[in-house]
Amino acid sequence: MLLLFTSLLAVASHAQAQGENYASAGYQRGFPDCQAGPLANTTVCDTAQDPLTRATALINLLTVEEKLNQTGSESPGVPRLGLPAYIWWNEALHGVANSPGVNFSDSGDFSYATSFPQPILMGAAFDDELIRDVATVVSTEARAFNNDQRAGLDFWTPNINPFKDPRWGRGQETPGEDPYHLSSYVHALIDGLQGGYNPKTKRVVATCKHFAAYDIENWNGNFRYQFDAQVNSQDLREYYLPPFQSCARDSNVGAFMCSYNALNGVPTCADSYLLDDILRKHWGWTNEQQWVTSDCDAVQNVFLPHNYSQTRPGAAAAAFNAGTDIDCGTYYQHHLPAALSQGLINETRLNEALIRQYSSLTRLGYFDGPQALYRNLTFADVGTASSQALALKAAAEGIVLLKNDGILPLQITNGTSIALIGDWANATDIMQGNYLGPAEYLRSPLIAAQNLGADVHYAQGPGGAGDPTTDSWLPVWRAANDADIIIYAGGIDISVEAEGDDRVAIAWTGAQLDVIGELASYGKPMMVLQMGGGQLDSSPIRDNANISALLWGGVPGQDGGTALFDVITGKTPPAGRLPTTQYPSRYTQQIPMTSMALRPNGSLPGRTYKWYDEAVYEFGYGLHYTNFSAEVSPVRSESYSIQDLVSNCTEQYKDRCAFETVNVNVSNDGDVASDYVTLGFIAGEFGPAPCPRKSLVNYQRLFGIQPGASQTARLNLTLASLARVDDRGNLALYPGDYSLLIDTQPLATVNFTLTGDETTIDNWPQPPAARSLASDYFVPGYGSEIVLDE
Amino acid sequence: MLLLFTSLLAVASHAQAQGENYASAGYQRGFPDCQAGPLANTTVCDTAQDPLTRATALINLLTVEEKLNQTGSESPGVPRLGLPAYIWWNEALHGVANSPGVNFSDSGDFSYATSFPQPILMGAAFDDELIRDVATVVSTEARAFNNDQRAGLDFWTPNINPFKDPRWGRGQETPGEDPYHLSSYVHALIDGLQGGYNPKTKRVVATCKHFAAYDIENWNGNFRYQFDAQVNSQDLREYYLPPFQSCARDSNVGAFMCSYNALNGVPTCADSYLLDDILRKHWGWTNEQQWVTSDCDAVQNVFLPHNYSQTRPGAAAAAFNAGTDIDCGTYYQHHLPAALSQGLINETRLNEALIRQYSSLTRLGYFDGPQALYRNLTFADVGTASSQALALKAAAEGIVLLKNDGILPLQITNGTSIALIGDWANATDIMQGNYLGPAEYLRSPLIAAQNLGADVHYAQGPGGAGDPTTDSWLPVWRAANDADIIIYAGGIDISVEAEGDDRVAIAWTGAQLDVIGELASYGKPMMVLQMGGGQLDSSPIRDNANISALLWGGVPGQDGGTALFDVITGKTPPAGRLPTTQYPSRYTQQIPMTSMALRPNGSLPGRTYKWYDEAVYEFGYGLHYTNFSAEVSPVRSESYSIQDLVSNCTEQYKDRCAFETVNVNVSNDGDVASDYVTLGFIAGEFGPAPCPRKSLVNYQRLFGIQPGASQTARLNLTLASLARVDDRGNLALYPGDYSLLIDTQPLATVNFTLTGDETTIDNWPQPPAARSLASDYFVPGYGSEIVLDE
């Protein structure tokens, strides 16, 4: 056994030797030389063939050892064949970002990329066209970086897990909490990133992550690496998976990433039910150009701490055989050789994984030579004036007005005296959140106010990370004394909410409320900018009559300060909507982060606006500088037959079939031109009890509605808009009374009825019997989930 | 109201203006000029008077405004009187340390101080003379820094809260979990720091912190700033307070620090029951040279988040009136002016607080001119050869041998081939933990092994902070392949356990167990160094037959690597004992960190070795390179009359009265000379049920017992050794059967009986009626403690 082990180590060691040395040996990343290299006359270089044929031909040229070498996120390539090294791990969450595969220059060309807001703020814009435009800029810049051998062609974005728990450190990476919203958003995003839903040559490959039920970093000893999410089929199908269905089934995304956590006892990267039964079979994601990567070292975590296999090769084989094609890390390269020699994997599966990788690269034009599409993009296409303007627009569109006693919009002219106080007042890279690359500039609120000619009295804040110190306070009082208007810009940043770092509380951190409260007692016009991705409980600000206004500004990217002041001054009137529920601070003491159920249960409150009704500000909330009213065109009928709806539907996936397109005529009844986000919710008593308060089914942002004028939003409802999920995960239509509500405090309502029998429109693949939810599941040696009440 | 507020701000602003500008205006820290300055002919400069008289005279010279200015941790002084600025906030936890009052030079003289191990490792030495020696070095170096105007004369050390919960991020700052151990340790420490228990001129003033029941940083939204510790009188008197009693009553410490948390509903800094009834009255800590400071911004926290007062001046007044003399921060300076004008405080109390401060400085020779004691100390007294040797000795004495199959001691000669792997292998400042100053050198395990002539194959580890990455693994396998012996040096550091950052799990972090397990499979001699202050669950290492040895090395200070290899090679045979329980990883899932009870209750396990019996390695555990046996001299009697014991006791504090001095004859039965820590535990069924498993009552470290030789330890038992605490906090003697156990797996046992009636020997002051423990206590707006089971 020891001898075998040693020899296998030698194999891995060989692989690594290549991986470590290819750069210094002049063997670098780059496009394969299909003109003069060893591959020139092989099928992979034959652009007349389809990607599968080309990739298969390539893989047939490799030895087993060479194949095993290409199973990690850093593929050393095959020198004898002129197959270059390739790094699969590239990031571009909200712009091309630092990562193993992305290499920014220290100065000059390629020293920056456009840095958009974090997705949570772009989600708040409820503007899918904006998302498509942003994603197109990101993929354009990514291609320019790739052409300079500074990035790969696949990017591990988007993070499309629903932002269920306000504590989640990575919620800022997502567009919000609502599964329909995320599904619609990601559909537009993938179009922009990949250059269409089925292009001949993809712009880049996007990667939907983290599949699935991943939304915990660490909470009371429940680390993401070992957490076993207990989710029933109803919640899985209804809440956790729709964005992924949108990625795979509806948007043809090129890649998926499985997650760190286990789902009902099986680490997702080793879960063939998830990766094969649902993802590939049920969603029809069967193209061999599509691959699954593990989250980084998630394969290692299958062994430890998940303890899903007794041996390391066994853990690697479990992930590989389940359908995880690429291991982010070196665990495959280190342990698959033993797995192969022990018969735990076979070469057929090895070929399949590699064909997926290289057919994906083929589809990206990797083997098509310098005349291929997108090869002409250069740094001149990075950070263009229009891209920079789009970054500003994306931020301004998302900012949400939560409170306004009339102080806003604020006239700021030369010499307007403003105290700008708080840790976000002179924000720099905290405006970029995480997964960031260098930006050409970072315009803080301070810079933006000065650019407007204001006389700014700036003071740093009392510290956002929870450790108050009054040492920095006296400049605060001086600034407040010296100014006519007080703006406090604080909240949280990645020192409080971050990857690996969930929050433990959602109250304003540290001494901020003390400082805000004291500033409010000055009796001067005062407003608060609540910054950060996750919501804070701002009820003390909402309820303080001496605070005139409250804006949520999220994580606004390179031009965040400008965007905030564009909204404050009314240059861009606010029209963003909260993409997540703002919970009261007690919420985190009422429910453990590990609880995955959406519905209220005993003393556990429900999750998201669908099930929780004590929000400080609810999902979709957002004020304007004007007032809107709405009228809804009558729908075809007051009553619909379920059987007619289903029998008239000829789509393969019946939930996509049209139901009604509802025209909503929105009128601006005030005196300020403004965008308006038309939100359509369905509510009613139908389907399995309990019924949600309401569910978002469509939205459309209208732009620049002039005072006294109106515009019409078209809300395209489908059978999915009406459907509910039963306890086995089946999607069905149910008889009952339905209401379509326009906006959170409805401006208009349409009622109608569905008649006939309950009819399933999507039969959900059932988990293996052994996978049924174990209420007393226990991860050996790592502690079970804390249950507050049983 | 606004006018008043504004004028009060002006006062505070004035104070701050001085505070901010005194340095730049040439008005700096330094000794008052009692020869030629304005104070020269005043009473404070009259060395013939007592400190109280002198300080009172000084305070009588100040205006009210000047007095209010001197209530923060940075006193601006009084320029017109030539009273210098003084910074109270100086740190010296395990050597003079960076802090507002301590200023290291960038190079040359005063660019470093001796950096001892963290207290948790010094505690493991169970050697009070060592602690006295270390403290003497620290106070000597502190005086040298003070003479160069680089430090103050008071230091905010020790942290003497018992290390109750293994998650606590600051447990490393304490000597361990046992209240007797801490009381004995701190008694020696204060002697060394202050230069005796009642010296005419103190070397420095020590500050016992954090008073009291502070041992949480943040846990699931329970931040130290708002946490309300619910502790009954029994646990308070028995567990949380003994070290503080040792400080105040038995060691005459110069200062106390109240803590962030509340205790049974009252923030400790505003708690006159704690600061007056217990500390000053019950413990006789009535000298006016003794003062209480708040932890930094703990006064601010009285307002928010504790919400203990409705107004900020009210919160400041509550703390001030309760006995908090100094506010670390600026909250007093900002809000006491309003408190005074509103009649919430009076000038008498203001005088008292300032007299305490300045009589303390007087007692330190501050007003005694350059001929005063300790004024001759210079940088030549810093980092002397003997001090550096003491830092090495302190580390080596504490290291604990947990497992050894005979591989240790290890012969290391020129060319011995060692793989040294892990994040602690080349440790630098992580060896210093927190509250550190620059050291002259930091000798890592790697350096130490190389100094021994070993052929070291070094590889960094897989990351200690919980985020595994296999990218760094292949060098690990190479190092292991290339060496004959494998040493893994890992564990945790201040990226995992830190101030403000409790752990959420106590399993080995990240991928370390995977790497360790794979290294063990090489079949080479292998050992593990478990580093860090808090314990990790090392049962997987204990139970792995392929791992030969396990050492716990704590946080070993500037010469930690040398100390580790001194123990490994047998140059210093191991004799340290675990100062805390090593709990299994499940423990943290079984009990919330907020639970303050010591005894098991329902499904909640007990805390510390006294109440918990499923330890991986128990408190006091530690192996040697030899075997010891022990014999105990018979005690006077097999039965004692409680009434006789009490009536023969003439001490003011009866618990101090002698009971028996037990002679323990310890024989070295093996063939390696070794130190031996003689631990004496009392066990038995007596007093209030339930009874603890056992309780440490005395210890003595014996040095260099030769093979075949023996030495005698003298364990001085007092009435406190026999006493128990009832549910009202009273200390009493109880009839029953007692056993004195020598060592954790007892080498010897003495049984005896106490007869007669239960007799109280310390009547505990009862809390005000309203302060009785509220089982459903709730901090408004901040969430209550999570209760797992009721």
**Biggest interface and its residues per chain?**
A-B, 60 and 61 residues
Distance between the termini of chain A: 48 Å
Beta-strand portion of chain A reads: 15-25%
As a whole number of angstroms, the C-alpha radius of gyration of chain A is 27 Å
Strand arrangement within the widest β-sheet of chain A reads: 12-17-16-15-13-14
CATH homologous superfamily of the largest domain in chain A?
Answer: Glycoside hydrolase, family 3, N-terminal domain
CATH hierarchy, class of the largest domain in chain A: Alpha Beta
Could you describe the largest sheet of chain A, including whether it forms a barrel?
Answer: 6 strands, mixed
CATH topology of the largest domain in chain A: TIM Barrel
Task: List the domain count of chain A as a whole number.
Answer: 3
Unreliably modeled segments of chain A: 1-26, 773-790
Number of strands of chain A: 28
InterPro entries (chains A, B): BXL, Fn3-like, GH, Glyco_hydro_3_C, Glyco_hydro_3_C_sf, Glyco_hydro_3_N, Glyco_hydro_3_N_sf, Ig-like_fold
Pfam families (chains A, B): Fn3-like, Glyco_hydro_3, Glyco_hydro_3_C
GO molecular function (chains A, B): alpha-L-arabinofuranosidase activity; xylan 1,4-beta-xylosidase activity
Family (chains A, B): Belongs to the glycosyl hydrolase 3 family.
